[in-house]
Design a protein that fits this description.
heterodimer, A: alpha/beta, B: 438 residues, alpha/beta, 2 domains, three-stranded antiparallel beta sheet, Luciferase-like_dom (chain B)
């Protein structure tokens, strides 16, 4: 099994004192994503949220799609304030643009400041569990919409003048406690059938969300979650697995560990850099922070692989410094150790993750 | 020597309608990115101001079933426009975004993002939703009464402009429709405001455009009607403190070329018959008659009986769902009579009447004839240019770009290179001033 190297992109880096950059320019994002692709990363994630300064991450991914060729593109979707119909067609469009490299990271927002930007819900009357249930419904609607066109629905049958076979288009008729959606989608089923849904989880509620709706889960080994320390790699993995067992999920999700990284030629230089930046503004992180050499990090990730994690999602502390180190130094070292791939072996994100294209749930169902 | 009035051209990649001839062997995918890349790069090669995509939020239905005769299925428009920004460098990227099933913060942020990530090429065609049918795909359903939808559209646009004007700063906005507060997450984008487009012919639509839009789409591609519309809408600008050149009037039109006039006319006739198959002719008649006409012969006369009004239909509502154009049949009995009289006078079948009544305005002729006509139209102040809609995608714009554009350039009424880097500059619009400065 390939150990997956993923890169999490956030502004100019995950350290709040990372030097500023042109985060409003397409080249800033395209070059970072291309750098991750140079390191044969399985995917890049793009952080987002309505209350944070920055551009829409789904659009950043779309801007990068035509100028990258293999890396999976996983923008963030805030389930709490978006329409599942819109999001499903946006992510399907990303999948069409990239011929099968789209994913999304589903995120729940309980932030009152974010709710005030929309002014249509009262966060004080909502429970965390309720918000996570809503996110689960959001993903369910998206997935049903992706399936609402069978792959061969477009027939172009000149003899009968029919462009589509409407028996291969399906109403999804989703009714949940937060919203109802009729369908079908306006966008034909995307190349992957189902783009890859991911979620970051470091508390039980989030493990349940991940178990219910994610193909890929990011955990924070040796990090700090809302309820305190998250435990080591094996413990976080068990957190995901027990949530899956609780609901009787058959196919387990793949699990990647998150880590903020400072990479330098020697360990002292890395920790000095961290200390110096902390002097400007302190890094507060849910994920563990690594400061050291490529060799040390490779050894740590070998440990994660041995503990059963499917990969690592690295968060460069300073993008302009640490991302090239990940792509140009760490990635070849991981490949040399037989941990990660030596070349892209597939053209789709599903292919890179070793996941088959799922059957359409509605195929053969009479409307 | 004074420069001739310059023609502005836009290219529309059509989504769902019968004018896209999918049965032609030259017709490609309408969903794969390669088609959009081809179309965008062709329009940019032709130095068009922008390309335009309409929006789909629900598949159309007729008689309770999904309408299956036209091209259908399309990408999310703002998303695919953003992807096209990666493979073009000058052409504007215009998309329809509905004001009914979106929130202003999200829309303003998306359009500002499109503007940044395209280097100042974003445009927004502001529309309202017309029915609860579409609302069934959204959280809030068909929650908004009809009379409030224009209000919401106007407020949505006003609020979006206020958000853009915060330059990434604080806002506290309370209107009839919106109670929002916080910090807008995006600084001022390259164009200040994305270019605002409005479509619509009604009194409200004309006023809305005169007050708030940078460009207006119209159906008036006949010269006399165009001149009247042009004079009317341009005449409204001064009352809003705006100049004549602050609003571009762009009718939609299509084109069919030929090496000779006869060949072009024959090509146009063939295209029309491809667009309106016998089944499509029946479907269009059903939209007027508001009842099943599957037993009617499309090659026979227009039905002699009257349409059902909406009140007659047991299930309520109209046989056709999700199709805005049905609204034009406000008096179906009169429309049916008109069709019948046309058929009798010309000796036309139902299908021939549908072709005559539903065709988009088409420039037909040799490239020279089409260039002459377009130039005359613009120089006569019947429009500022056109939104061109080819009947084949993605290659349908290529003949126009290769054959007509050079002739317009020879006349001195069309650019030979882009003047600016932003859409606003290329449309010849004044820079946006922040509200606080105006």
């Amino acid at each position: 099994m390939t150990f997956h190297l993923a890169v999490a992109l956030k502004d100019t880096g995950w350290h709040p004192a990372a030097p500023p950059g042109d985060v409003l320019e397409p080249d800033f994002w395209v070059s970072q994503i291309q750098e991750a692709e140079r390191g044969l990363a399985t995917l890049v994630t793009l952080e987002d949220g309505f209350a944070r300064r920055g551009l829409d991450s789904v659009l950043i991914a779309l801007r990068a799609g035509p100028v990258t060729s293999h890396v999976g593109l996983v923008p963030t979707v805030v389930a709490t304030h978006t329409e599942p119909f819109h999001v499903s067609t946006q992510i399907a469009t990303l999948d069409w643009v990239t011929a099968g490299r789209a994913g999304e990271r589903i995120k729940v927002s309980a932030d009152p400041a974010e709710a005030a930007l929309f002014g249509r819900r009262d966060p004080s009357s909502e429970t965390r569990e309720g918000l996570f249930d809503e996110a689960i419904d959001h993903v369910e609607v998206q997935r049903r919409l992706w399936d609402s066109w069978e792959d061969d629905a477009e027939i172009r049958d000149a003899a009968t003048n029919r462009f589509v076979d409407r028996d291969k288009l399906h109403y999804i008729d989703f009714v949940g406690s937060h919203f109802a959606v009729r369908g079908p989608s306006i966008t034909p089923r995307p190349p992957q059938g189902q783009p890859i849904v991911t979620a970051l989880a470091h508390v039980d509620t989030a493990y349940r969300l991940a178990a219910r709706c994610a193909d890929l889960v990011f955990t924070t080994p040796d990090g700090v979650g809302r309820d305190g320390p998250t435990g080591d790699a094996a413990t976080t993995l068990r957190g995901v697995r027990s949530a899956e067992a609780e609901i009787g999920r058959a196919e387990p999700a793949q699990v990647l560990g998150d880590l903020v990284v400072f990479l330098d030629d020697d360990a002292t230089a890395a920790s000095t850099r961290w200390t110096r930046l902390d002097g400007e503004r302190t890094l507060r992180s849910d994920a563990d922070v690594f400061a050291g050499t490529v060799d040390q990090l490779a050894t740590k990730l070998e440990g994660w692989a041995a503990a059963g994690l499917d990969g690592a999602r690295l968060r460069p502390a300073v993008a302009e410094h640490d991302l090239p180190r990940i792509a140009r130094d760490l990635a070849p070292e991981l490949a040399r150790r037989g941990l990660t791939r030596t070349a892209y072996e597939a053209d789709t994100l599903r292919g890179l993750l070793g996941l088959a294209k799922p059957a359409d749930r509605y195929a053969g169902v009479q409307s | 020597m004074t420069q001739k009035k310059q023609i502005h051209l836009a290219a529309h990649f059509p989504g769902v309608n019968n004018t896209t001839v999918w049965s032609d062997p030259a017709s490609g995918s309408h969903i794969e990115f390669e088609s959009f890349r081809h179309f965008a790069q062709s329009a940019e090669r032709g130095l068009f101001d922008f390309l335009f995509l309409a929006e789909g939020l629900r598949l159309r239905e007729q008689g309770g079933k999904i309408y299956d005769l036209d091209v259908m299925g399309r990408p999310d428009n703002v998303s695919i426009l953003q992807a096209m920004a990666a493979v073009t460098s000058h052409i504007g990227l215009a998309g329809t975004v509905n004001s009914t099933f979106n929130e202003p913060l999200d829309v303003a942020r998306k359009l500002a993002s499109l503007d940044f990530l395209s280097g100042g090429r974003a445009a927004w065609n502001v529309v309202t939703s017309w029915d609860e049918f579409t609302g069934e795909n959204f959280r809030r359903g068909g929650y908004l009464p009809k009379e409030k939808r224009y209000l919401r559209a106007q407020e949505m646009l006003d609020v979006a402009k206020q958000l853009w004007d915060t330059d990434g700063g604080e806002f506290d906005i309370h209107t009839d429709q919106f109670d929002i507060t916080g910090r807008f997450p995006v600084p001022r984008s390259p164009q200040g405001h994305p270019v605002i487009i409005q479509a619509g012919d009604s009194e409200e639509g004309r006023e809305f455009a005169a007050a708030s839009a940078d460009a207006i789409f119209t159906r008036h591609a006949e010269k006399q009607a165009g001149m009247e519309f042009y004079a009317d809408v341009k005449g409204r600008l001064a009352a809003h403190g705006r100049r004549h050149e602050d609003l571009k009037i762009l009718p939609a039109a299509t084109f069919v070329l030929g090496d000779t006039e006869d060949e072009a006319a024959e090509n146009a006739r063939q295209v029309q018959y491809q667009q309106v198959s016998p089944a499509t002719a029946i479907a269009f008649a059903e939209q007027v008659w508001n009842r099943d006409l599957s037993d009617v012969d499309p090659d026979g006369p227009v039905p002699s009986f009257d349409p059902k009004t909406e009140d007659d239909v047991d299930s309520g509502g109209h046989i056709s769902k999700g199709r805005a154009s049905v609204r034009q049949y406000r008096d179906p009995v009169a429309t049916a009579r008109e069709w019948r009289e046309l058929g009798e006078a010309k000796g036309w079948s139902l299908r021939e009447v549908v072709i005559a009544k539903n065709g988009r305005h088409t420039f037909v002729g040799t490239p020279q004839r089409v260039a002459d006509t377009i130039d005359d139209f613009v120089q006569s102040n019947a429009s500022d240019g056109f939104v061109l809609v080819p009947h084949i995608t993605p290659g349908g714009m290529d003949p126009f770009v290769d054959q007509v554009v050079p002739l317009l350039q020879e006349k001195g009424s069309f650019r030979t290179s882009y003047e600016g880097t932003t859409l606003r500059e290329n449309l010849g619009l004044a820079p946006v001033r922040a509200l606080s400065q105006s």
